[in-house]
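Sorry, explain these tokens?

***
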Amino acid sequence: MNYKILGKKTGLPVSEFALGSAMFGQSWGYGAEATEVNKIISLYIDHGGNFIDTADTYQSGDSETIIGKAIADKRNDLVLASKYTYGVGQGNGPASLGNHRKSMIQAVEASLKRLNTDHIDLYFVHQDDLYTPMEEIVRGLDDLVRAGKIVYGGLSNFSAWRAASAAMLADLRGWSGIAAIEVEYSLLQRTTERELLPMAEAFGIAALAWSPLAGGLLTGKYRKGEQGRGTALKGSILYEGEAVAEAVLDELFALADIIEADPGQVALAWLKAKNVIPVLGPRTYEQLENNLKQIQQLDTASAISQGYPHQINRSEETRNSLTGGQWTKFQSPQPIV
């Protein structure tokens, strides 16, 4: 797996695909148990992955707890992202929910405990609550950076105008700023291209794409009658049965047949070309193994010679001698925005 720099506001190398963890745990009645998660994370790391994306609400907090135990001996080699807004557990009052500073402080402290770490590398506001002022949110994230609780701040599922105002406020006030946004983006959800992606590019903000395979819909497994998140968690697959979605799937599967590829492979290749970071969300070891196999095939098929002097500077021997073999396949630092 290759690495790129996280946006234009950081110098942080992250793998070109992040590992999503909404299916890590079984508190929702569907997901992977801890032993399976350990296998998934090990496979991801073995293939060069270093970017894990979670949230306090995933599996009612169990996702963070499982991840914290699984990566304990590798923590410093990984980029760990988490989120807050919804709270965890039953009985959360209104003062414990939302984007305001009180909720932010309580949530980050709880996530740090579950993740068994002293800092979170990328901390997202999970969703806009539509009432907390952006100045309070951005200043709160800046305070967490200054306190060493987080390294970078980000916004997830925010409108372009709210995210743009946050980026501008940070620039004007000299605050740490918004390093990344996380948005739904796939062949079946392209409204992100209207404003969110152009906004991110203009401000040098990295973009992560959640549900890159539309909850498995783009793999074709539901048409084959297979089970998955769409059948276990009703309502989680938003586009199934829609006329436009079915037309896209018909075209995708026809193209996959022509080039003798897996539909999921084609969908990921399309998304990768959009210069975003797809967040893979496997529930099983086999699902991630198949995704990584597809990624490796795409990398091999599209590989080019870097030429002098990059070929020398980026050679396997040079990297290994400088990093003991730890920094492999690091390409020219093109930012992902």
Observations:
- The CA atoms of residues 108 and 226 lie 38 Å apart.
- The chain has a mean pLDDT of 87.
- The longest strand covers residues 150-156.
- The chain has one domain: 3-335.
